[in-house]
Amino acid sequence: IDFVHLPTECTIRIFTINGKLVKTLQHAASHDDGVESWNLITKDGMDVAWGTYFYHVDAPGVGQKAGKFAIIR
Questions:
Q1: Burial class (CB in 10 A: 0-12, 13-18, 19+), 54
Q2: Contact 26, 32 (CB under 8 A)
Q3: First to last CA, the chain
Q4: Alpha helix positions (H), the chain
Q5: Are the beta carbons of 68 and 3 closer than 8 angstroms?
Q6: Rounded to whole angstroms, what are the CA distances from 63 to 18, 29, 49?
Q7: Which residues contact 68 (CB under 8 A, 6 or more apart)?
Q8: Using CB atoms within 10 A as the burial measure, which of 3, 8, 38, 52 is most buried?
């Protein structure tokens, strides 16, 4: 999964539909590339299960954005 059009610095948190934190990604770019990839591995080192997930992007001084996506097997 690629998160695109990101500001220079932000935190991306990915949650299950039940609100359990699956992964936290820190995006920090010295230039304006705006892309952070997630390899579908949980914070515990396991493959992610199929289903619906929510993400929350928090960019200090810029704002927040939330959304959802699905992993299909």
A1: middle
A2: no
A3: 14
A4: none
A5: no
A6: 24, 17, 29
A7: 52, 53, 54, 55
A8: 3
Per-residue pLDDT reduced to its tens digit, 34-55: 899 999 999 999 999 999 999 9
Give ∠ CA 43-48-54 in degrees, rounded to 5: 80
- Given a cut of 80, whether residue 32 has pLDDT beyond it is no
pTM greater than the 0.70 cutoff: yes
DSSP 72: -
- Hey, what are 48's tokens? 């992610």
Other beta carbons within 10 Å of 6: 21
**C-beta separation of 11 from 60 below 8 A:** no
- Give the SS3 label for residue 62: coil
